[in-house]
């Protein structure tokens, strides 16, 4: 089943008096957790999420009693600071959009700020490793990328914890930032995180989200533009196993002129209780003339009983755009692909692996860091070997 929509430049659109993207939320963004009602699962933004498995992150009963081992490897010239919540860089990229994100903002004691100075081009990525050591943890991290700097950032999540966090990417004028966020948690971990990216004039932001582990993972990448000419590319890869709930909810808010965005997420699911959710919201405001945007979600169901909900939303308030569209599809293996490979002497198990690897190949290549790509391919192979066994 697939749906697609494309609106060419100058096409007729209905102009909304009030953004339906905003009205679907139970409350407007805020730093104060008291501004958000406790969700009950009937709200639009929570109706797919198993609240009972969030371990109290949504209702205020999750008390910070755990620990996360953090390691940051920063190239020369990149600075790492620990600051209080009164630091002016904290919260600049955006406000929490739901109660869990607001709870994380209210609960953290110190924030980490990683700064890449103007015009710096580090030869190596900035690597941030977070390893959960049990209990409930909260966090807030800011990545401040200076004017015309170019950097790659690797966020690696492993271990076991119940974690809520906010991550900010502040990308100044003309800068280029590539972020690879890997969720490779233990099977019992819970991870809810909001990623706010503020993309400056003529800046480029690329995000690659890879989710394998965890009991419940709920990520909320959000992009906004601080000036014209900004570009955002959001890619995602997820492999959902039996019993896992993996949810990715995206918002690209076009409010500046002549900006571009491209979203492409792909997932594979196996197991009778595997559950994936993908929500893709793109809002083109009346001021965002010259916008060019497209979003895509593809899902491959490997076994009976797995379920995925894919909801692309495109809202346009001006007809003066370059183009806009979206597409979503969910399906099983195509028999023709397997037959083609098996007819050439490739065993059925190997043919199955090749089809899945081909399905994800273009997204893996977007990472651009060889050791990370090799690790993820190995992880993918392990998942496939488990399903075949």
TrEMBL record:
Question: By its UniProt entry, which InterPro entries does this protein fall under?
Answer: Fe-S_cluster_assembly_SufBD (IPR055346), SUF_FeS_clus_asmbl_SufBD_core (IPR000825), SUF_FeS_clus_asmbl_SufBD_sf (IPR037284), SUF_FeS_clus_asmbl_SufD (IPR011542)
Q: Name one Pfam family in it.
A: SUFBD_core
In this chain the SUF system FeS cluster assembly SufBD core domain maps to 132-359
Which PANTHER family does the UniProt record give?
PROTEIN ABCI7, CHLOROPLASTIC
Q: Write out the similarity annotation.
A: Belongs to the iron-sulfur cluster assembly SufBD family.
Task: Please state what the protein is called.
Answer: Fe-S cluster assembly protein SufD
Which source organism?
Streptomyces johnsoniae
């Amino acid at each position: 089943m697939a749906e697609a929509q494309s609106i060419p430049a100058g096409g007729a659109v209905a102009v909304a008096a009030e953004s339906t993207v905003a009205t679907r939320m139970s409350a407007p963004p805020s730093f104060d957790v008291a501004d958000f009602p406790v969700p009950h699962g009937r709200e639009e933004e929570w109706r797919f999420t198993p609240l009972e498995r969030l371990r109290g992150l949504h209702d205020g009963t999750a008390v910070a009693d755990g620990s996360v081992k953090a390691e940051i490897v920063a190239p020369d010239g990149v600075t790492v600071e620990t600051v209080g919540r009164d630091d002016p860089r904290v919260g600049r990229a955006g406000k929490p959009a739901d109660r869990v994100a607001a709870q994380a903002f209210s609960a953290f004691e110190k924030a980490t700020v990683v700064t890449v100075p103007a015009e710096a081009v580090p030869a190596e990525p900035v690597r941030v490793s977070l390893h959960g050591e049990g209990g409930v943890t909260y966090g807030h991290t800011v990545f401040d990328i200076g004017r015309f700097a170019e950097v790659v950032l690797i966020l690696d999540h492993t271990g076991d914890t119940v974690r809520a966090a906010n991550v900010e990417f502040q990308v100044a004028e003309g800068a280029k930032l590539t972020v690879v966020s890997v969720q490779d948690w233990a099977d019992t971990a819970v991870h809810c995180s909001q990623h706010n990216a503020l993309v400056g004039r003529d800046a480029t932001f690329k995000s690659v989200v890879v989710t394998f582990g965890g009991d419940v993972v709920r990520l909320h990448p959000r992009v906004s533009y601080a000036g014209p000419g900004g570009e955002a590319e959001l890619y995602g890869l997820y492999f959902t196993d039996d019993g896992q709930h993996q949810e990715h909810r995206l918002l690209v808010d076009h409010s500046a002129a002549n900006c571009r965005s491209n979203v492409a997420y792909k997932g594979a699911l196996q197991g009778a209780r595997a559950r994936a959710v993908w929500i893709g919201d793109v809002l083109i405001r009346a001021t965002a003339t010259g916008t060019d945007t497209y979003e895509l979600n593809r899902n491959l169901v490997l076994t009976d009983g797995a379920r995925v909900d894919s909801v692309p939303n495109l809202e346009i308030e001006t007809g003066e755009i370059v183009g806009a569209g979206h597409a979503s599809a969910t399906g099983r293996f195509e028999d023709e692909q397997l037959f083609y490979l098996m007819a050439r002497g490739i065993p059925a198990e190997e043919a199955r692996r090749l089809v899945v690897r081909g399905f994800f190949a273009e997204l893996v290549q977007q990472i651009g860091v060889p050791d990370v790509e090799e690790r993820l391919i190995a992880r993918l192979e392990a998942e496939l070997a488990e399903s075949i066994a």
